[in-house]
Design goal:
The complex is a heterodimer. Chain A is α+β, with helices and mostly antiparallel strands. Chain A is 20% helix and 32% strand. By secondary structure, chain B is of the alpha+beta class. The chains are: A alpha+beta, B alpha+beta.
Chain lengths: 374, 125
């Protein structure tokens, strides 16, 4: 193993006493104090995250939109400049290589943000799929640090540091601006289920921006937040995590996210990588659904973990937990799990999770567990 | 963090108090509590259970993981900390005090336990 990579904020995290963890080859803050307190801060006030491990890839050129329409499953050409789209990149067999956010920065310029664990895979796939298109694929992983301010107080905190029109910035939109004197791409995106912003900046500016946000957020109760609470926040919000809910052995339809696949796209005469396999997967999901992704809420206090079997009243395996954690908002353990369609309806009786040999009763619910009031 | 001098420590990160009338108190160390993160559920042994040094006698669930609880000594459980059963965060906030886990009537001499200084060195390594 090579040494883990460190973000531009590494010294800041250490000075704050963070517990660090290896995540996809990066040394990242897991938590600074209590992960539950950090979680609650994001739900009720605001939290500050270093997400510099995320992988940015820039695609430019006259046929940038066509390339992305071909390489990804979404209708990327229809994204207006200044807006963003949640999408996926699949294999020819329909298996998910990664889930992505694509920002259209300009008519001929997109930024693709990949998960850290898949950034190289996505870069390689985009580069391979670029052949024949008048477009360039650029590895910008080292060009950006990424800070996120998430939570209901985040608009007020950010407003005190920028003249950018945040009120006009919708969810899943991004605009270039200046925050605390630092040039940033300001995006209204996140992975927490709360209102919030992601700020893409030069790594050299990351510490100054972190300190300015910390200072500006002090009175509003902003706290630094690690990846541990990011995971429980996204789990409550029912958002999938690559490697848990998503993998190359599943199509977007298997994951209940078939809506991200657009068969009707104008570019490339509708051709895109994985199209035929995904059309078949769509039909299968419609007529004979395999397992479905559901939410499970514990009746007891023992916590389900990824990989634990889901069982029916007879103890027969009917599925597998993909993510599980104690939910700070619900005050109970929750899980996402792939469960046989026959047991996937909310309210299905007799469903349990095999927690190290004991069958603990769980309630089947629709996702998400938590939805913020707008 | 400092490990209280009057306690003895196992390499599995439990602490054991000096016996009073043959009964010692068991908990996990601050080092262990910090490594676990927020403890959300403590499955403790039951009063009357026989515990064996180095063997699992319960579980501690945290946000990210579940860990076995090992008894540092042979004996019989005489009391469990109901406060921790109701509010497991005591393990994080006061691991050496209000976050104790159970009391055990010793059936043998504790073996292979570390002094506070030895345990501090052990966890520093």
């Amino acid at each position: 193993m090579s040494e883990p990579r460190r973000t531009a904020l590494d010294a800041t995290h250490r000075a704050l006493g963070a517990t660090m963890t290896d995540f996809a080859g990066w040394d990242m803050p897991l938590r600074y104090g209590s992960e539950r307190d950090e979680h609650v801060a994001v739900r009720t006030r605001a939290g500050l995250f270093d997400l510099s491990h995320m992988g940015e890839i820039t695609v430019t050129g006259p046929q940038a939109a066509d390339l992305l329409d071909y390489a990804l499953v979404g209708n990327i050409g229809s994204v207006k400049p200044g807006r963003a789209r949640y999408t996926m990149i699949c294999q020819e067999d329909g298996g998910i290589l990664d889930d992505l956010i694509v920002y259209r920065l300009a008519d001929q310029e997109y930024m693709v943000v990949a998960n850290a664990s898949n950034a190289q895979t996505v870069l390689d796939a985009l580069t391979a799929r670029q052949a024949g298109f008048d477009a360039a694929v650029r590895d910008d992983r080292d060009a950006y640090a990424l800070l996120a301010v998430q939570g209901p107080e985040s608009p007020g905190i950010l407003k005190s540091l920028t003249d950018a029109d945040l009120d006009g910035l919708k969810y899943y939109a991004g605009l270039p601006g200046t925050v605390a004197g630092v040039e940033a791409l300001i995006a209204r995106t996140g992975y927490t289920g709360e209102d919030g912003f992601e700020l893409f900046v030069r790594p050299a500016d990351a510490v100054a921006l972190w300190e300015a946000l910390t200072e500006a957020g002090k009175d509003a109760g902003l706290v630094p937040c690690g990846l541990s609470c990011r995971d429980t926040l996204r789990l409550e919000a029912g958002m999938p995590l690559y490697g848990n809910e998503l993998s190359t052995s599943l199509t977007p339809f298997d994951a209940g996210l078939g809506r991200v696949v657009k068969f009707e796209k104008p570019g490339n005469e509708g051709r895109f990588v994985g199209r035929d396999a995904l059309a078949a997967a769509a039909e299968r999901a419609e007529q004979n659904p395999p397992r479905k992704l559901v939410g499970l809420i514990a009746e007891g206090r023992r916590v389900p973990r990824a990989g634990y079997p889901v069982v029916d009243a007879e103890g027969t395996a009917i599925g597998t937990v993909t993510s599980g954690a104690p939910s700070p908002t619900l005050g109970k353990p929750v899980a996402m799990a792939y469960v046989d369609a026959a047991h996937a309806e909310p309210g299905t009786k007799g469903v349990a999770v095999d927690i190290r040999g004991k069958h603990e009763p769980y309630e089947v619910v629709a996702l998400p567990f938590y939805k913020r009031e707008k | 963090m400092s490990n209280p001098q009057q306690l003895r420590y196992s390499k599995e990160h439990e602490w054991l108090s000096a016996a009073e009338d043959g009964v010692s108190t068991v908990g996990i160390t601050e080092h262990a509590a910090n490594a676990l993160g927020d403890v959300v559920y403590a499955q403790l042994p039951e009063v009357g259970d026989t515990v064996t040094a180095g063997e699992s006698c319960g579980e501690l669930e945290s946000t990210k993981s579940v860990s076995d609880l090992y008894s540092p000594v042979d004996g019989e459980v005489t009391e469990i900390n109901e406060d921790v059963a109701n509010d497991p965060s005591l393990v994080n906030s006061a691991p050496f005090e209000g976050g104790w886990l159970f009391k055990v009537k010793l059936s043998g001499e504790p073996e292979d336990l570390l002094s506070a200084d030895e345990y501090t060195a052990f966890t520093a390594g």
